[in-house]
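Title: Prediction job returns without error message
Component: structure pipeline
Severity: low
Priority: P3
Assignee: unassigned

Description:
Job completed but the reporter wants confirmation the result is attached to the right record. Sequence as submitted:
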Amino acid sequence: MAETLLESSALSAFCGSMASMLSAGIQIDEAVHMLSDNQSDSHFKSVCKNLYTHLIDGSGLADSMQATHGFPDYAVEMVRAGERSGRTEDVLKSLETYYEEESSAFAKLRSAVSYPAALLCIMAVILAFTVIIILPVFISAYENISGSFTAGSFGAVGASVAIGWVALVVTILLALVVLILTVMSSTERGRLRTIKFFENFGPTREAMYELALARFTSALSTYVSSGLDTETATERSMSLVTNSTLRKKLELAYADMTSVEEPLSLAQAIAKHEIFEPIYARMMQVGTSTGSIDQILSRLSHIFFDDALDQVDALISRIEPLLAAFLTLAVGATLISVMLPLIGIMRSIA
């Protein structure tokens, strides 16, 4: 059994390869077996082997994917919808694009997190060395010759120790946060918690909302193109949404769509509750009137992904100067914690 989920890049490669082989007329179990044979020993290979075992036992692709515990629920549900509608190949192609874009988004987020994490860890080591090794030397010197020094000298030592410890604790806490987020993203439960953290974190809240919109519209497009009515498609797509802000809006929109008195169309409900920007809601209205709603939704999914990537890029550009400012303060605190005892000594001697 796979212990962790496949990375987004691996999911994209799997779905794209499967779609290509299905298009060439290769059966699903044989396609998975070929994927497994063409890989070196890796987590991807073990997942494919596990998947192949369930396929030859008679399970469908979606059920087999779920049984491996190596695929996220979203991918499983989309493939299941494709199997029901006979559009497995199309769904796999859609998932290839989706996870390729998701991989780009989370790669940017990881780079925005890993770089500060590395610098914070280095700074934590420097501060720890200063506080634990260097400052005690000054304190010991003061204790040995305390009779010839004034109280101001001891005050300088106390201030330096306090500054050093505060800077060390803050740096270690920040480093632990980013490291924990990085480790947590390796499991499905951890990914959900990481996503929840970024959803509630002010600078990344809008980007995570856009990513949730992209996932919702992609799922909605798949369900609608598989022949489901918009109400049922909305309900199923909504069940895959983890973003609390988007989910609340969708629940209100769904209630209006299923209202007995004055039911609204999907486009009208989305426009009413401002789930999309007005221009995108109008695109949906046009798609509804022309019968191309699934194509419009697929296009909107790409637009929302691009918007999320732009916001992540903007976040990274803001993080870098903030990180530089924090590291400057940490370095300053380190220098001050070392210099204050020396200043105290100079004053006492004078």
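Comment from assignee: result matches the submitted record. The mean pLDDT is 79.
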